[in-house]
Amino acid sequence: MTTKAILFDMDGVLFNSMPYHAKCWEQVCQAEGLDLTAQEAYLHEGRTAKGTIDLLTQRKWHRDATPEEVERIYEAKCKLFNALPEAPTIEGADLVLAAAKRAGLIITLVTGSGQKSLLERLNKAYPHCFVPERMVTSDDVRHGKPHPEPYLMGLAKSGVNAEEAIVVENAPLGVEAAVAAGIRTIAVNTGPLPEKALLDAGASQVFPSMTAFAQQFDEIVGRK
Ligand code: CA
What we know:
Layout: E1 5-8, H1 18-31, H2 38-43, H3 49-61, H4 67-83, H5 93-102, E2 106-110, H6 118-125, E3 135-136, H7 149-158, E4 165-169, H8 172-180, E5 184-188, H9 195-200, E6 205-207, H10 210-215, H11 217-221
Parallel strand pairs: 1-2, 1-4, 2-3, 4-5, 5-6
Helix pairs in contact: 1-4, 3-4
Bound molecules: calcium ion.
Calcium ion (CA) binds at residues 9, 11-13, 45-46, 170-171, 174.
């Protein structure tokens, strides 16, 4: 089957924002008496805020978080995050996007993020790659990753079948979501997790960087 579309996750794939997210989660959760380290935050990447906070309150207090707790913790996290400088791009992501365009692939974004300024930032960092019709954000879906819904919607917006697409992800839960949607998934390990975490989640291949993926892009996509 020919690959027709490539679906990109954003945080940790296009922007190096995960160190900021992880640090903010750690700081805010510890102030609330919840145990979360920045390192563990990487394991929950892609989960909704409520999903992450419930997991922590369950572990510590054996109950789900109240709506007030979720709102307070998530607001504090966003406030910290928004005060930080804009995250830099991931090295080599521009090369992967250039290779995808050269191969004539449909390019789609599938992110759990929902910031209003998303498209503007994407266009600034990666000109002429993304269009609003082919973007799935947290505003578009009911279920976050690892549920397949975001990637199923990504397929629908791309107008292709699962067999005609590949996904680029950096997080175990993101890989799980894409694999659950039936899509071949390439993982780029841009964070501190062991490669095994991504393979165990179902990634068909793991690259240490976007640059390394770009170098083998034509082979992987089968468009030599
Ligand atoms: Ca990610």
